[in-house]
Predict the 3D structure of the following.
Amino acid sequence: MTDSVLKLFIDAAVAFGTVATAVLAIWGPWFRSVFIPPRLHIMLHTPEGDPTKTTDGSRLMYFRLKVVNDRRWLPATNCRVLLMGLSRRGPDNIFHPIPMAVPLNFVWAPSEITPPVITLVKEQILDFGYVPENGNKFVPTLYSYANNFQGLVGPNEAVRFHLEIQATNFSAGRYQVFEVAWDGQWSYEPQTMARHLRLREIRET
């Protein structure tokens, strides 16, 4: 290889490296979001319940989920969890879809200091819902509720909640489904409450 050919090769390699560096600096986040996005999923966190007291002394049994990022070196930006659909168990023991015109946003924990959308690096707890002492409904923890919202779970009822994680650089492409079934009994002891209210993930095929 002559000196002129070698110099041409080196100059071309340097130019390519310069252009590639500039492209990655500008388009790097887009490339990562398309080819190596965060890997997010929802899992049970306190399915047996988490006894909680409000500032006025009222007792609640909270149920929480957890959103996990398996690729911690790729934070998920503007991340939130939406309720995309509901289905309720009918008298035939079959779950029937409930119309929902608008998705609703779940609340990150702790709700007092966590905004509706976050940058998720490793994991974040999600307030899924609660049952107050002397209450007769499981209430999903959402920032807002539609006037015709039908996602409350009363005694001897069962509802399935279809959840989707959304982020700027992540698309789930599917829902995760969590079922709440309650017999109407309440307890401040998680082990006891777990026998009366069942929270579980449904692996739909």
